Amino acid sequence: MLDISELTVRYGKLTALEKTDIRVDEGEAVFVVGPNGAGKSTLLKTVAGLLRPAGGRIAFEGQSIAGGAPERLCRRGLALVPEGRHIFRTLTVEENLLVGMMIRRDRAAVQDDLEQILGLFPILRERFRGVAGNLSGGEQQQLAIARALLQRPRLLMIDEPSLGLAPLVIDQVYASLKELNATGLTLLVVEQSTARVLDLATRVYVLRGGKVVLSDTAEALASGDAMEEAYFGYAGQADA
Amino acid sequence: MRNFMQVMVDAVALGSLLALVALAIGLVFGVMRLINFAQGDYITIGAYALVVPTASLTPALFIGALPVPLMVAGVLMVVVLLALATERVAFRPLRNSDPATLLISSFAVSYFLQHLVMLLHTGRPKSVGIGQALTTPIEILGLRVPGIQVVTMAVTAALLIALVLFLKRTPMGIQMRAAAENFQMARLLGVPANRVIAVAFVISGLLGGTVSLLLIVQTGTLDIRMGLMPVIFAFFATVIGGMGSLAGAALGGFLVGVASVLLQSYLPEGLRPFRDAFVFGLVIVILLVRPKGLIVIGAARERV
Ligand SMILES: Nc1ncnc2c1ncn2[C@@H]1O[C@H](COP(=O)(O)OP(=O)(O)OP(=O)(O)O)[C@@H](O)[C@H]1O
Ligand SMILES: [Mg+2]
Q1: What is the C-alpha separation between B73 and B79, in angstroms, rounded?
Q2: Given an 8 Å threshold on Cβ–Cβ distance, is B299 in contact with A89?
Q3: For A2-85+153-236, which CATH superfamily applies?
Q4: Is the pTM of this model over 0.90?
Q5: What is the pLDDT of residues A5-22, one digit of tens each?
Q6: For chain A, which has fewer Cβ within 10 Å, the N-terminal or C-terminal residue?
Q7: Residue A12 CB: number of other CB atoms within 10 A?
Q8: Which residues in chain B are contacts of A148 at CB distance < 8 A?
Q9: What pLDDT digit, counting tens, does each position of A155-186 carry?
C-alpha cells in the first residue's frame, strides 16, 4: 500500500533520513520506533507532503506521491496525526471534527461515521460544543485521532500517540487503535518508546540516526531483545 | 452635552471606518502572517477608480458616473481584483517566508501602487463630488448628524455581522479560522491553502472598497496618500486588539478612532497638531499594560 524506497530528506545541510526503505501492506499496523532525533517525524511529514524529499521514491497504492501537496494527499486517503496533536484550540470540538470531514463527498455516510466515532470517543460527545483548547491532553489526542478518522483514510499515520499521556489513557488510545486496525484500517505509527509496540504492531522498523537499523515482524521480535538492542545501538553500549 | 454627543457620533463613525480596515488587515494576517500595508493603497485605488485618469484637478467621473448600485459594485470589483492580483503576484510566491520578508514585500507593493496612481492621475490632490446628498445632516434625536456617518455606522455593523456569520457558520469560514490558527494542520486535513488565502484577500478587497467609498463621500478629496493614515491607525488597532484576533481588530479600530476624535476635540488648542503622537502614545501604554493585546487568542502560530 505504501512503498518508500531510498528516501532521503534534508534540513539544509543536516540529513535527517538517509536512503530509508519502509513498506506498509494493506491491513497492517507498522511501527517505526527510534530515539529522539532519529527522523521519525521527518518520515511521516514527508509522506504526508509537508516536507519535500531530497531523493528516493514514495508510492501510495502504486502511484508516486513524493512532493505532493498535503491537501491533495489527504484526498487520496492518507491521514496524519502529527506530533503534539495540533488540534485547533480556538475552534469547538464540533468545528475541529467538521474540518476533518470537509474533504468527504459522501454526506450521508459522514453522519454515520460521526456517530460511530463519537461512540468510540464518548468524551468528545460530552464536550461537543466546547472549545477544544479546554480539553485535557488525552482528550486532545482523542480529538486529533477522531478528526483524522473522519477523513476516512485508508492509511492512518500517527506520530507518538502516547506522548505526554498517562498510562491509563495510553491503554485507551491503543485499545481504540487496535479496534480500528481490526476493522481493516492500515496504520503507520511512530513511537519513541518500545514499551507497547508489540501489543499492536504487525511489523516494526527501528530507526536510528536517519537509517533503518532493524526491521522484522512483531512475532519474531516478541522473543528476544533484538528490538531493544537495535534501538540502543549494540547491547550494552553506553551511547543510549 | 449636545456637543459631546456630536463628538461621540464623529468618534464612532471614524472608529467604524478604522474597524473595517483593521478587520481586513487582521483577516489576511490571520491566514498568512502578512501585515499588508498595501491595504491602504487598495483603498486609494478604489477611490481613484471613480474618476477618469487625467492630470486635471477636477477630473471627469468614470466608475463614479454610473448609477449608485453599479458604482458600488464597480469600485468593489476593482479593489477585489487588485487585492487578488497582489496576492497572486507578490505574496503567494513568498508564502513560506518569514513575516519580516512578507512585511517588506507589502511595503514594496504599496510603494509600487502609489507610484502607479501617481503616474496615471498625477500626485496632486483632486476633488470629486460623489454622494453629496449624504453629506447633508439629518436629525436624529435632536442631533444633526451627517448622513454619511449614519451610513458608515450602519454599513460597518452590517459587515461585522456578515463576517461573523461567514466565519462561524459557513464551511469556508470554519476552514479559514482553522487555517488562521494552524495553517499546516489545516492543509493536512485537506483545507485548500490557495483558496482560503484568496478568499481572505477577496474579503480584504471588499472591506477596502467599502472604505474607499465611505471615505470619498466624507472628504470629497482624492489623494494618493488617502489610504495611508487609515492603514497605520488600523495597524495599531490590530496590534492593541491582539494580533490574530478579529474581534480584537474590530475593537481596536473603534478604540483608536474614538481616541483620535476625542483627542482632536478636547486636547488644548496648541497640542492638537500632535494628536497622532498622543494616539500612538496611547497604543504604547496599552501594549505596556497588555503586551499581547486586548484579546489574547491561543498560541500564535503553531507549526506541525
Ligand atoms: N525544521 C527542522 N529544521 C532543522 N532540523 C530539523 C528540523 N526538524 C527536525 N530536524 C532535525 O532532524 C532530525 C530528525 O528530527 P525528527 O523530528 O524527525 O526526529 P524524531 O525521530 O521525530 O525525534 P523525536 O522522538 O524527538 O520526536 C533531528 O536531528 C532534528 O534536529
Ligand atoms: Mg518526532
Answers
A1: 10
A2: yes
A3: P-loop containing nucleotide triphosphate hydrolases (3.40.50.300)
A4: no
A5: 999 999 999 999 999 999
A6: C
A7: 5
A8: 189
A9: 999 999 888 788 888 888 898 899 999 999 99
